[in-house]
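Budget justification note: compute hours in this period were largely spent on complex prediction jobs such as the one shown. Inputs:
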Amino acid sequence: MKQQDFQLNGSTPPSPSAAHSFQHGSIRITLENSELWKSFHKIGTEMIITKHGRRMFPHCSIRLSGLQPSVSYVIMVDVIPVDSFKYKWKKKQWEVAGNSEPQPPCRTYIHPDSPAVGSHWMRQSLIFQKMKLTNNTLDQHGHIILHSMHRYLPRFHVILADSPYTVRWSPFQTFTFPETVFTAVTAYQNPKITKLKIDHNPFAKGFRRGGPRSQHERPSSKTPVKRLTKVRKTLCSSSPDLQRMPSTSQAEAKQTSVPQTLKGGHHAAWVQELDSSESLHTELLELQECDFSCEEQMVPSSTACQPNRFPLPSGIKDPADPLFHAPPPPLGQQQGYHGNAADWSQYPLFSYSCW
DNA sequence: TCAACTAACACGTTTGAACGGC
DNA sequence: AGCCGTTCAAACGTGTTAGTTG
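Corresponding output:
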């Protein structure tokens, strides 16, 4: 896959054309399936959330470099709100539908290999394929809890720690990619997104045109062709830009065979421990004093969480996003910029962990 | 009435146990 | 006994759709 990297520092805006790799200090992180993400982002990425948890597609797949080969790291992902609005899909585009709802508990997904030494992390790409999103605020499975019709951004954390127990006190660095912004939905709104998902996700192969049978062609379907199916058909025949693209998902899936440093039982023990650690759940992040241009940022002590007042991180600009009509304040000024301390200061880190 | 949500469904993929051959 | 490749069923993940909820 074609990749462009750029070096990030606090004062130099990156080139808008190279927004899918970040470097903090010596650590560099690259979004492996950036092109796929961008093809979704152009349309307005949507992620289904369900009560029992739904995987993300595209997956978050990253490559790390610049780690100390023999030092242990924990790699985490969390998902933060992009803004303080709720959206609705109206007349083929997203519109603001009011203020966001109070944010659910912020949870963090720890890569199952964690902790592992730098050489391990750098050996192959990391795929957060099993991370699941849910709208069930009472979820007991450790899935990431989101609100439907809200916009979110995944964050990747590289933490210098040899155990999830110690991440609170460990130096960490945080990375984001603007093209991974998505809207959480309980049912797809934009039929173009549905088509892209079907074309690229192997699990949706059964719905591909020219595939075995589409839903409305099955014998069991006794009802007239529904609206979405109609739209999908129209799109398939009329949109050249939505013609089937070369699938990357199979290749992605095959990259997941990362040697395990720890097996299931051990992981489960950690989950339990972390779940029961009330302090960790409720520890909130205070980054106001942190300088993101520094190579390391210390996991802070507790502070108050005010999730609804998250200012738009400046890296979240959607320059090619005709589908979103967010009211002022305007989206950020720099694409691919990791943001300053204030941007990220009001969202908790490491408040929950799961596998 | 309508938008958002849920659950059941059919279909395809993934996973892992069982088996046989070497 | 150990390794490797194949087979197959169960589990899982997917979008679709009818029905429910507010």
